[in-house]
Specification:
This protein is of the alpha/beta class and 802 residues long. Among the domains are: 6-168, no CATH class; 169-332, no CATH class; 637-796, Rossmann fold (3-Layer(aba) Sandwich), CATH 3.40.50. Helix content is 34%, strand content 19%. A hairpin with an 8-residue loop joins strand 4 (56-58) and strand 5 (67-77). The longest helix is centred in the last third of the chain and has 19 residues, at 751-769. The protein is globular.
Length: 802
C-alpha cells in the first residue's frame, strides 16, 4: 500500500542543537516546502540528522502573511503541567491517537519537554480557523503560548516515536476541541468554533458508497436522512429495533464515537436529549458508568451544530444494527416493507414467444435503417435460438466466450471475428497488452499486421497465427454471411458492410466506458514531451469536480512514437484525451468515453435488463422503437428477502448469517464476497452474469444490492445532461417510488442521479436472477436485497429459520 504523503516545510540544513540567541535566522533562511510520509518525517526531525520544520506551506517567506495551509500541527509541552501520558489519554477519550511524539533538545530528567505532532486527513486552509484552533488548544493543554502561530518553526529532537500511521480526521479533531471548550464553559456553546461556506472548503475526496467524507459536518452534513422537528416515537419499538439504544438505556457504557452518533439521532426525538442526560446520570450515580463532562457536552454540541443523524450502522458495534440508518426512520417505517402500488399484469410464455417472433421478423424485414429497435425481454424466452437462424446480419454478443457458444448452435451460413490473439513470443503479447492498457487498440492491430509479414518474426507459427487472425477479420466483410462478433469489436469498427446489427444483450457497458488514469503518468514525462505540459497546465489548478474534456490537440502518433519503447505510461492516458467528461480527485482522473451506435445499419437490441430511458437521453438524435415483452408468467418462483440491504458493508457484518441460512446452495454475489458462502461459482458474480447458462434450472440464491461507485453515476449523468452538483449530491435513506413499488432505500436525493442509480442496480440483479432460467424451469431463486424486482413473486421481510 502506498504511503500517504503530507505537505510541510523543512530546513535543508541539519540542526542537531538549539542555536544561540540571534542565530535563528539561519534556520528560517534554510526552510523549504516538501512532502513526505509520517515515517520519513520522523527520520528527518531526529538526531543525528535533525532538521527544523514547520507544519505550514507558504507562498514565499515563512510568515503568517504568506501562509497557505497546514496539514500538520505541532504541540509544544515544556512547562511540566501535563505529561505525555495525560496528553494521549485526553485525546484517547475521543478516539484520537496522535501520530508521533519526540523529546526536545532541552529535555531533562527533571523536566520532560516534548512535542506531539498531528497529521490531518485534510489541510486547514483558513488562518482564522487555524488561530482559533490553537487558541483553544492552549486552554485545553497549556501548550507553549509562543508556539501557536501558523508560521511557527520547530527544532527537531530526539526519540521520535510513531504512534499512529493513519491521518487524523480534522472534523473529529475539531469536535474534540469544541467539546472540551464547552465542558470548560459550564456546558455553554458560546465559545466554540464557527464555520461557514466562506471559511471551510469541501474535502477533495470522491463520494463512494461507504465513505461520504466532508470537511465539516456543520458545512456539508453527514450523508443520512434529515429529520426536522421533535419527532414523537414509541420508545419500546425503538428499543426493540435499535440495539445500541436499548443497551445504552440499560446502562451499557458507550465510547465517545458511539455516544456522539447516538446523540445526533436523539436530538431529533422529542425528549431524546433529556432521556440521554438522565440515563447517563443514573448509571454514573450507581457506578455502572463513568461518563465525563466531555461526554455530557456532546449533547449541546451536536444540537448547536445541527448535526443530521449519523447512520446507526456507522457507530453501533451490534450486528443487529447493521442496516439501521436513523432511529426515527427505523421506528416510523418498517425496514424492508415493499408497498405494491401498481400490480404487474403478466402474459403467458406462449403469448410472449409469439409476440417476440412476429415483432422480430417484422423489424428484420422492414427497410428502415435510421431506427434502433429495443426488445425488452425476459431471460430464457429464446432470443438466442431465434438469432441462430438469421441470415446476412451481424450478431454481437457481450464476450468472445458467448460468441463461441452461439457458433455451435448456428443454422445458417456464418463467419466470426477471431478471439484475442496469443503469440508464443511473450514479448509480442506484452506489447499488445500494453497498447490496450494505455488506450491504443489500433496499434495492437498494427503490430499483428507486421507479424503477419514475412521476415518480421522468425517464429513461423506466430507468423501464421497473425495471417489467420487478419484473414478471419477480413472474412467478416462478406455481406452474404452472418457475422458473429462481440459488442466491443462492432462498436470499434463499422458493421462489416452489413445492413443489420443485432445486439444479443444490452451493449451499454461497451457504448459507455468509464476508465481512469493518473496525473503522475502525464507529469512524469511533461518535461520530456513538451505537448503534455499544456495538459497539466489545464488539469493541475482544478479543484475536485467534474469537467468537460477539452481538445488537447495531442498528436497521438507522435506521442506513441515517443512512449512505445519506453513503457512510460502505466494507465490509459490515450483514451482520456478522447473522453467526454472527467472527474479530478487528487492525483486520479476518472473519465467517460461515449461511442456511437452503428449509423449505417438497422440496430436491434435484445435484452432482459436494458435501461431504455438511458438510450433516449444518451442518443437524443436517434429514433428508438420499443417492443416491451418483459412481463411474462414464469414456471419457477422468485422469492425476495428485503429485510436487510445486503450492501457490501452489510455483508461484511452479517454475511455469515445469510451463509448459514442458504447452506450449500449456489450463490451469486459480489466478486470479493464469494468466500463468505459455501458454493459461489468462480466465474459468475455481479457485473459478470450475462449469458451464462451453467445454472439453468437450478435453485440458486442471489445475495447483494450492487451499488456502483458514485463516479459511474456522476459521469453517466453528465452524459445525459442531468442537472446536479457533484459537491452536494448526497444519498439518503428515504422512501421512494420506483417501478410501481414504494419502499425505503439508500438513494440519491437528486432525482436525475436516482434515475440512473436504480436501473443500474436493478440490471445487475436481474442478470443474476436470470441465470436459473425460471421462465421455463420449475426452480426457485431466492434474492437477498432491499431493491424490489419486478420479476419477484413474493417479498418477505424476514426469513423464517428452523
Amino acid at each position: 500500500m502506498e504511503e500517504i504523503k503530507f505537505k510541510y516545510s523543512i530546513s535543508n540544513t541539519i540542526f542537531n542543537n538549539k542555536l544561540e540567541d540571534g542565530q535563528f535566522w539561519r534556520v528560517n533562511k534554510s526552510i523549504r516546502g516538501t512532502q513526505s510520509s509520517i515515517q520519513e518525517f520522523a527520520r528527518l526531525i531526529s538526531r543525528p540528522q535533525a532538521h527544523s520544520w514547520s507544519g505550514g506551506i507558504f507562498k514565499k517567506l515563512i510568515s503568517d502573511n504568506d501562509w497557505i495551509e497546514s496539514s500538520i500541527i505541532g504541540l509544544d509541552f515544556d512547562n511540566g503541567k501535563i505529561s505525555l501520558q495525560e496528553v494521549f489519554k485526553k485525546f484517547g477519550e475521543f478516539g484520537i491517537i496522535p501520530n508521533l511524539h519526540y523529546n526536545t533538545f532541552s529535555n531533562s530528567i527533571e523536566l520532560h519537554k516534548f512535542r506531539v505532532v498531528l497529521f490531518f486527513d485534510v489541510p486547514i486552509n483558513n488562518i482564522k480557523i487555524y488561530e482559533k484552533i490553537m487558541f483553544n488548544l492552549e486552554k485545553i493543554f497549556h501548550i507553549d503560548p509562543n508556539c501557536k502561530n501558523p508560521s511557527r518553526i520547530f527544532y527537531g529532537g530526539t526519540g521520535a516515536t510513531i504512534t499512529n500511521n493513519t491521518p487524523i480526521s480534522l472534523e473529529q479533531f475539531i469536535q474534540f476541541i469544541d467539546i472540551n471548550i464547552i465542558s470548560k464553559d459550564n456546558f455553554l456553546t458560546r465559545s466554540i468554533n464557527k464555520y461557514d461556506s466562506s471559511s471551510a472548503k469541501n474535502c477533495n475526496s470522491l463520494y463512494d458508497n461507504n465513505k461520504n467524507k466532508h470537511f465539516l459536518a456543520t458545512y456539508n452534513k453527514f450523508n443520512c436522512t434529515s429529520i426536522k422537528g421533535g419527532q414523537v416515537i414509541d420508545e419500546n419499538i425503538a428499543r426493540d429495533r435499535v440495539r445500541i439504544l436499548d443497551e445504552f438505556l440499560n446502562g451499557a457504557w458507550l465510547d465517545h464515537l458511539q455516544l456522539f452518533g447516538l446523540a445526533t439521532n436523539m436530538i431529533y426525538i422529542r425528549g431524546g436529549e433529556q432521556k440521554m442526560k438522565k440515563t447517563m446520570k443514573k448509571f454514573n450515580k450507581i457506578g455502572k458508568t463513568k461518563y465525563t463532562p466531555n461526554n455530557f457536552s456532546i449533547l449541546p454540541y451536536v444540537k448547536k451544530k445541527e448535526y443530521n443523524p449519523i447512520p446507526v450502522f456507522k457507530f453501533s458495534p451490534y450486528i443487529e444494527d447493521d442496516d439501521v440508518h436513523d432511529i426515527v426512520t427505523e421506528v416510523k417505517n418498517i425496514r424492508g416493507h415493499i408497498e405494491i402500488l401498481d400490480p404487474i399484469n403478466k402474459i403467458s410464455l406462449e403469448e410472449a414467444e409469439k409476440k417476440m417472433i412476429s415483432s422480430f421478423h417484422e423489424v428484420l424485414n422492414n427497410g428502415e435503417l435510421d431506427t434502433t429497435y429495443i426488445f425488452s425481454l425476459p431471460t430464457a424466452i429464446g432470443k438466442t435460438r431465434l438469432l441462430t437462424n438469421v441470415e446476412k446480419c451481424v450478431i454481437a454478443l457481450p464476450t468472445n466466450n458467448l460468441k463461441n457458444e452461439v457458433m455451435e448452435r448456428m443454422n445458417v451460413d456464418f463467419t466470426f471475428s477471431p478471439d484475442t490473439i496469443k503469440f508464443s513470443d511473450s514479448y509480442l503479447n506484452k506489447k499488445i497488452d500494453y497498447y490496450y492498457r494505455i488506450g491504443l487498440p489500433k496499434k495492437s492491430m498494427g503490430l499483428i499486421r507486421k507479424v503477419s509479414e514475412l521476415g518480421y518474426v522468425t517464429n513461423l507459427d506466430d507468423n501464421m497465427l497473425a495471417v489467420n487472425h487478419i484473414s478471419q477479420i477480413e472474412e467478416c466483410n462478406n455481406p452474404n454471411k452472418t457475422v458473429l462478433t462481440t459488442h466491443k469489436r462492432v462498436l470499434n469498427s463499422d458493421p462489416f458492410g452489413h445492413k443489420t446489427v443485432i445486439f444479443d444483450e444490452d451493449p451499454l457497458n461497451s457504448l459507455i466506458e468509464i476508465k481512469s488514469t493518473s496525473i503522475k503518468d502525464i507529469s512524469g514525462i511533461q518535461y520530456l514531451y513538451e505537448p503534455l505540459r499544456k495538459v497539466l497546465d489545464f488539469i493541475s489548478p482544478l479543484e475536485y469536480g467534474i469537467y468537460e474534456t477539452p481538445d488537447f490537440k495531442i498528436n497521438y502518433d507522435d506521442l506513441f512514437e515517443f512512449v512505445q519503447d519506453k513503457n512510460i505510461f502505466e494507465t490509459n492516458v490515450f483514451d482520456f484525451f478522447n473522453s467526454k467528461f472527467f472527474i479530478k480527485n487528487e492525483d486520479n482522473i476518472y473519465y467517460v468515453l461515449k461511442k456511437d451506435l452503428p449509423s449505417v445499419s438497422k440496430n436491434i437490441i435484445m435484452s432482459a435488463t436494458i435501461p431504455i430511458e438511458f438510450y433516449k437521453k444518451l442518443y437524443p438524435e436517434k429514433r428508438f422503437e420499443i417492443i416491451d415483452i418483459k412481463h411474462v408468467e414464469q414456471k419457477g418462483s422468485i422469492k425476495q428477502y428485503t429485510g436487510r440491504s445486503c450492501s457490501r458493508k452489510g455483508l461484511n457484518s452479517y454475511g455469515g448469517q445469510i451463509s448459514d441460512e442458504v447452506g450449500d446452495k449456489t450463490v451469486i454475489t459480489f466478486i470479493d464476497h464469494k468466500e463468505i458462502f459455501q458454493n459461489s461459482p468462480e466465474e459468475i458474480h455481479f457485473g459478470n452474469c450475462s449469458g451464462y447458462d451453467s445454472l439453468n434450472g437450478q435453485n440458486i440464491v442471489v445475495v447483494g444490492t450492487p451499488h456502483r461507485n458514485n463516479v459511474e453515476y456522476f459521469l453517466m449523468a453528465k452524459l445525459m445532461r442531468a442537472n446536479f452538483d457533484i459537491n452536494n449530491s448526497p444519498m439518503t435513506y428515504q422512501k421512494i417510488r420506483y417501478n410501481g413499488f414504494e419502499f425505503m432505500f439508500n438513494a440519491f436525493e437528486n432525482k436525475d442521479l436516482r434515475d440512473i442509480q436504480l436501473p443500474l442496480i436493478e440490471s445487475d440483479l436481474i442478470q443474476a436472477v436470470g441465470r436459473a432460467r425460471t421462465l421455463r424451469n420449475d426452480c426457485t431463486v431466492e434474492v437477498y436485497s432491499n431493491l424490489p424486482l419486478y420479476v419477484s413473486d413474493e417479498f418477505i421481510i424476514k426469513k423464517k429459520t428452523a
